[in-house]
Amino acid sequence: MRVSIGIDIGGTNIKGGLVRGRRILRKIEVGAGTGMVARITALIRRLISKQKVERIGIGCAGLVDPHRGVIHYSPNIDEFRNIPLAALIEEEFGIRCSILNDVNAFLLGEWLFGAGRGYQDLIGLTIGTGIGGAAIIGGRMLWGSGYLAGEFGHMVIDKKGPLCSCGRRGCLEIVASQTAIMRMARRYHLPLSDPEGVARLAKSGNKKALQIFDAIGHNLAIGIGNLIDIFDPEVVIVGGGIANAGAILFGPIRRYIRQEVMGYRYRRIRILPARLKKGASIIGAAHFDEQLLTP
């Protein structure tokens, strides 16, 4: 079985791995910062130093054109503006390189080897500082006319809600992300520094923390309900660090989803946590093939 490299580019860290099938044979993580192309090439060079690699796949947050191998825009990475990263990597290493949005990579990994295995119609959401999305419908990745489909985090949930980074108010990611959890924690005067701390407090029975996760779950249910009404998927996979909160997050989502979906009782739908955890985007990127772009 071939060995490929999968790279997951984030605003804080760059994670890379040697991938065979569903296994990450070796994983390296380096910090993001200035000189991102040099950091990525150095990471790849470390991974291939003792291993023959057939291909390289890169997942990156933002607006990505996988057909041309270009990153148009990536949040928190100023130098990624219309950069032909695939061509730069291919020129450096002489190995075929593909690029796709990081949430498409996440969902591809979960579809091939994780919670989405065996399904043909599925939605993926990753909950972090923002909320990213992707869809596979009829066994084919949903790309859109410009390969920019899946910005589910920017569907408006509350027109009078907080201002989102996109310039609108009440987007799903501003009312249901880790950022929203911390904003509510400050409102409730909970002296916590991260969403994981709020989750631990909720699991201990703290009423204010439980109210936060109930509100987050309700907002996610509204957004997921919209996606179910549009796509009628078999499964919705929720990933990102806060998905590890377990029942305190998924309980409210599953409870509220019944009132947010038209004809819920007639549908076959499962809402599941990601199975591959932090490795999904690396594995998905390593297995990405341009044939997935064909209509």
Q: Which characteristics define this entry?
A:
Nucleotidyltransferase, domain 5, 35% helix, alpha/beta, 295 residues, single chain, five-stranded mixed sheet
Structural summary, described in words:
With about 300 residues, the chain is of the alpha/beta class. It has 2 domains: about 5-105 and about 280-295, Nucleotidyltransferase, domain 5, CATH 3.30.420.40; about 120-275, Nucleotidyltransferase, domain 5 (2-Layer Sandwich), CATH 3.30.420. Helices cover about 35% and strands about 25% of the residues. The protein is built from 9 helices and 13 strands. The protein has helices at about 35-50, 85-95, 100-115, 170-175, 180-185, 195-205, 205-230, 245-260, 280-285, and strands at about 5-10, 15-20, 25-30, 55-60, 65, 70-75, 80-85, 95-100, 120-125, 130-135, 140, 235-240, 270-275.
- The helix tally amounts to 9
User: Quick one: how many beta strands?
Assistant: 13
> Roughly how much helix do the residues carry, as a percent range?
25-40%
> What form results from the Cα inertia axes?
globular
**Any idea what the radius of gyration is?**
19 Å
Domains (count): 2
Return the structural class: alpha/beta
What is the CA-CA span between the terminal residues?
27 Å
- The proportion of strand residues reads 15-25%
Report on the biggest sheet.
Answer: 5 strands, mixed
The averaged pLDDT comes out at 93
CATH fold name of the largest domain: Nucleotidyltransferase, domain 5
Sheet with the most strands: spatial strand order: 3-2-1-4-8
CATH superfamily of the largest domain: ATPase, nucleotide binding domain
Helix-strand string? EEEHEEEEHEHEEEHHHHEHEH
CATH architecture of the largest domain: 2-Layer Sandwich
Low-confidence region ranges: none
CATH class of the largest domain: Alpha Beta
